[in-house]
Amino acid sequence: MALPDGFLDELRARVSLSQVVGKKVLWDKRKSQQGKGDWWAPCPFHQEKTASFHVDDRKGFYYCFGCQAKGNAFTFVQETENVGFMEAVEILAREAGMEVPKGDPKAQARADRNTRLREAVDAAARFYRTQLSTAAAAEARAYLERRGVKAETLERFGIGYAPSGRTALADALTGRGMEADLLVEAGLCRRSERDGSLYDFLRDRIVFPIRDGQDRAVAFGGRAMSADAQAKYLNTSETPIFDKGAGLYNIAPARSAAGRSGALIVAEGYMDVIALHEHGFPAAVAPLGTAITEAQLALIWRISSEPVVALDGDTAGLRAAYRLISRALPMLEPGRELRFVLLPEGKDPDDLLRSEGGPEAMGELIGSAQPMAKLLWREKTEGLVLDSPERRASLDRDLRAVLDEIRDRSIKMHYAEEFRRLRADLYGYGHPGGADGSGAGASPEPRGLPPASGFQKRGGAWKKGAAPLLPSTEQSRASLLASGAEGVTDRLREAVILATLIHTPVLIDEFAHILEEFEFRGPGHAAIAASLLRVPPGVDAEGVLIHLREEVGARGLETMLSPRHVQIAPSVRRAGDAELARACLTEELAKLGAARGMAREMAESVAAIAGSAGEGLDWRIAQAADAVLRAASAGEGGRSELETAPNGARLDRREKDALQELLRRIGYEGTGP
């Protein structure tokens, strides 16, 4: 059965040979170089212990140095599955999500027509090439000489010249017996709307042949020599053999060169690619007169997992970079990355390569190419004045929108972590990685320890059950709450905040700035807060607990979650209620901030009193202290209303003693105890 022309090419582009072969072999990880598409394994066609079977993913071929087996994805499936060619095509098409076209009597006719289209384009390429040496092309030759293009480079890229005459190409090709309609369909000529006469599409232009992945000429790009031309660069139109959104300039040679070097440079235009090739960077490609498409991105990543995009460092270059990033975000996955080189403003690769620094300067820029996340951060923050909570919240919203564009969960998690780090640097704060600021000290899960907050281990996995109140343990009896240690109220509030985020993790991103900026003082609380920032997006409460147990240890988690005050908090009892949790977090943070603010004021007042007894005492602070003591001792049975509330601001014994000592020292006789 005849397949439509181009179907097998598209199937080859979609199917990775290493994926096909990987189902039958075990790769030698030490010998293979995944980033370069270079794979080695014991041969599946003969018995051996050494890895002599080689797969070149970029070229799409395999070869065994032991038994000399060789071929492509189709022959591999034929040999390993014992099927014919068409059956192998059907197997690979299913893997690629493509449908094999049904038998069509017109398919062969289309294939024959496309063959004739390629013949016409190839004949045009030879015509343009010969025209470059004529007297009419003197200005074009002079331009190429000024750009430093060598004779061998002209030959290598097939660069030619389209004469200014209206019908020079049409007359040459029809004179060889080619149909006028064929030349129009190939994009080489057009018909006049006035009288239907044939005329050349490219005129008075330097011509760059555009070739497909098999290095066959399929179209042309032309640079105008006249300053009055409507377009400086112009491509022939799309045809049955040319899709400008799916191909790349210099694709076939660059793929081979990248297979040797492992690097690929994506430039902006034809002359950039040619200049890079001339100065020792043959693995270079460029889009075909448009912004890079998704199809071109996929093709680029097939050649290199970390291509370097080289753009002019001006405003237009930055805009092009931002557009490309926006298009690439949904396509990111492990093994797919973009890095960017922003050239000095006003210089393109050709300018830089011919400057004093030359290839060395370009090599240094490529070696220090910026990761995509860094350029994306620049786009979102450049020129911003983040001097208010509202402006910071606006930036947070924009960053969350970026994360929403990333489909791969692991990539999204690492981007979120990178944004948090960059935000911390921007705002001038950091966060300790562990209880002691070192990030270390996570303890293993104690054998037999009851899981916190209603998660129980069933069948080897942690499952959510009822949220029982844990029985008193030696550890909880020695806790801050039981000991009446100084600052216990603040630490319990911290625990409620962290427990709320654990049980309703959908709010972690919303309150990430709190986890980053807030000073957690409770035992192990800083480590838990830092670990919450590293929770992958979309993880549920069960996953968050598993994540925390692995990072900070079950013992520290148990210490924080076990106090009754934490367990009876509404936001913990009603896990997953985002509205309730948000209200609880807002309230707890406000109370904690107010309490710490009051503590700072009182500490400053005590210091002032100690240094100036009897002079200028601040009676307003003394009255405030007395009011706090009265509130803490009021209510039924001598217990304050605040003390009996689940999330109340209770004063421990030391805090009361401190306030009473303050009042005694200043000789204040108010209504407090």
Automatic annotation (TrEMBL):
<keyword id="KW-0460">Magnesium</keyword>
<dbReference type="InterPro" id="IPR002694">
    <property type="entry name" value="Znf_CHC2"/>
</dbReference>
<feature type="zinc finger region" description="CHC2-type">
    <location>
        <begin position="43"/>
        <end position="67"/>
    </location>
</feature>
<keyword id="KW-0240">DNA-directed RNA polymerase</keyword>
<comment type="similarity">
    <text>Belongs to the DnaG primase family.</text>
</comment>
<keyword id="KW-0238">DNA-binding</keyword>
<dbReference type="InterPro" id="IPR037068">
    <property type="entry name" value="DNA_primase_core_N_sf"/>
</dbReference>
<keyword id="KW-0863">Zinc-finger</keyword>
<dbReference type="Pfam" id="PF13155">
    <property type="entry name" value="Toprim_2"/>
</dbReference>
<comment type="subunit">
    <text>Monomer. Interacts with DnaB.</text>
</comment>
<keyword id="KW-0235">DNA replication</keyword>
<feature type="region of interest" description="Disordered">
    <location>
        <begin position="435"/>
        <end position="462"/>
    </location>
</feature>
<dbReference type="InterPro" id="IPR034151">
    <property type="entry name" value="TOPRIM_DnaG_bac"/>
</dbReference>
<keyword id="KW-0548">Nucleotidyltransferase</keyword>
<keyword id="KW-0639">Primosome</keyword>
<keyword id="KW-0862">Zinc</keyword>
<keyword id="KW-0808">Transferase</keyword>
<comment type="function">
    <text>RNA polymerase that catalyzes the synthesis of short RNA molecules used as primers for DNA polymerase during DNA replication.</text>
</comment>
<dbReference type="Pfam" id="PF01807">
    <property type="entry name" value="Zn_ribbon_DnaG"/>
</dbReference>
<dbReference type="InterPro" id="IPR006171">
    <property type="entry name" value="TOPRIM_dom"/>
</dbReference>
<dbReference type="InterPro" id="IPR013264">
    <property type="entry name" value="DNAG_N"/>
</dbReference>
<dbReference type="InterPro" id="IPR006295">
    <property type="entry name" value="DNA_primase_DnaG"/>
</dbReference>
<feature type="domain" description="Toprim">
    <location>
        <begin position="262"/>
        <end position="346"/>
    </location>
</feature>
<protein>
    <recommendedName>
        <fullName>DNA primase</fullName>
        <ecNumber>2.7.7.101</ecNumber>
    </recommendedName>
</protein>
<keyword id="KW-0479">Metal-binding</keyword>
<dbReference type="InterPro" id="IPR030846">
    <property type="entry name" value="DnaG_bac"/>
</dbReference>
<dbReference type="Pfam" id="PF08275">
    <property type="entry name" value="DNAG_N"/>
</dbReference>
<dbReference type="InterPro" id="IPR050219">
    <property type="entry name" value="DnaG_primase"/>
</dbReference>
<dbReference type="InterPro" id="IPR036977">
    <property type="entry name" value="DNA_primase_Znf_CHC2"/>
</dbReference>
<keyword id="KW-0804">Transcription</keyword>
<feature type="region of interest" description="Disordered">
    <location>
        <begin position="633"/>
        <end position="654"/>
    </location>
</feature>
